[in-house]
Amino acid sequence: GDSGDEKQGKSGSSCDFETNLCEVLPEFNLQPGWIRRNGQSGMGPPYSDHNGKDSAYFLSLSSEMQSSSAALRTSVFLPTDEEHPCQIRFHYWVSQMSGTLTVGLQKRSEDTVTNIWQVPGELRNQWNVNTITINSTEKYEVIFSGMLETQRQGENVAIDDITFSEGC
């Protein structure tokens, strides 16, 4: 509403998925299962991006796909400092029955992913927005993981307009 998400710092980055992924989300970090689509694709909800445009693109993990879970990894980020934490803002859609979206943090020195945010499928088929703040003393990657527990038609997890602050 206030165009705050359109204003980017010099080193901030935004991924709107209109043409492809952005440099922070390299194509090779997109696991099979995520598809870039729009509301006109005939693949069920969501039928538009978070702004209500049915021709605008977003990433979706659909129940019609073979894979029921997939992850999206960012590039490796440098450690944050206290004055400039990394803030990641994104829009998400989770079907009400069986979808889950998780955001995790993987430090370069660790093999495990630490979940830092999760939303279960209790939402009522609508776009929502969230901002996550990350402070890390080590290099790290952020992993967006979608999962569908059932293969019912119309079940979906989607993500749109991921914005990374200058601190990332």
From TrEMBL:
Ranges of residues in domain MAM: 13-168
SUPFAM superfamilies in alphabetical order: Concanavalin A-like lectins/glucanases (SSF49899)
Superkingdom as given in the UniProt entry: Eukaryota
Gene3D superfamilies, per database record: 2.60.120.200
Cellular component GO terms held in the UniProt record: membrane
CDD domains referenced in this protein's UniProt entry, alphabetically: MAM (cd06263)
Protein's name according to its UniProt entry: MALR1 protein
Species annotation: Anthoscopus minutus (Southern penduline-tit)
Lineage: Eukaryota, Metazoa, Chordata, Craniata, Vertebrata
Gene name as annotated: Malrd1_1
